[in-house]
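Sorry, any thoughts here?
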Amino acid sequence: MLLIVACVVVLPIAWIWRRHPTLQARRHALTVLLLFVTFDLVVFGAFTRLTDSGLGCPDWPGCYGSSSPLGASQQIDEARSAMPSGPVTHSKAWIEMLHRYLASSVGALIVVLTVLAWRQRWLVRSQVDLTTQAVAGPWLPTLTLFWVCMQGAFGALTVTMKLYPAIVTLHLLGGLGLLMLLGLQTTHGDSMAQALPAIPRSLQRYLSLVLLMLVLQVMLGGWVSTNYAVLACEEFPKCQGQWWPAMDFHQGFEVWRALGLTASGVPIDFAALTAIHYVHRLMAYLLLALLCVSACWLHRASWRRPAKMLAVLTALQLITGLSNVVFDWPLLAALLHTAGAAALALLLTWLVTKSSASRTVKHVATLP
């Protein structure tokens, strides 16, 4: 498996080294590449979950001890024969292993990024030329490396603990956090903040609040998905023909329990699934209002292009979220809903970072 990952990461690294001669340019190009691949990984992770492929290979890190499903054909056939409607099929095994290959490749590239960052720090601190341009420190890449190691651990637990909802939800949040960390690193050295007008500190704080609320909503959305509670309400705006259906919040939000069971080991009630779905829906109403206010406020502050992007992504989330309910959870809509949430997290991370940078730039420019 390590050989497969090595073959995957060698090509992009060789391309970056050939195209970019300086260490700083290589580091930036690798960060942008990692941002793109990690976004794909988050969406592909959603595809793995939505196609019930999370246990396509019920061991870790390989597939029945093999580096690919090709070497596990016999075991997959035996598992499929023993349980025809079970989670193990050849296609699901390949989906699960492709997800692991992609995740391992991201981890390997982050190791390279961290080494580059520390080497760059050593070169800058050891040279005597005081005119050298300041570069980003190595601490964010180091944190990213630690984060991806923890994410890998949660990925292993997702399989070995048979899709515990709490573990799978934390794995989703970890992927989002990794994406935001990489997005934060791509903003270093971006000159766009100098071209944007300074915004009020109140707007900057408001955007930080909206980002925090978005992360909370993603956590709730992950809880809905990992508990398969999307279809607990199949109409909109009512649920089960009522504005406030029967709900069991205690069962629904018991954190440490197996999939489909309560903490005491009995099957979870449908009212609990309804509670999980409806809390996510109520939170969506609040977040929708916050995002609309954000777009309007940014437009008034002359951040018109970011405001339009935020409005478009908000509309996408609304449409795909409704499609999941009304059209019986279509795969494309569910994937776009996950991709939209990831894109919103990236955009809000950029907005919070750049709003702070624009205020700093404008403050420095006004100093005598």
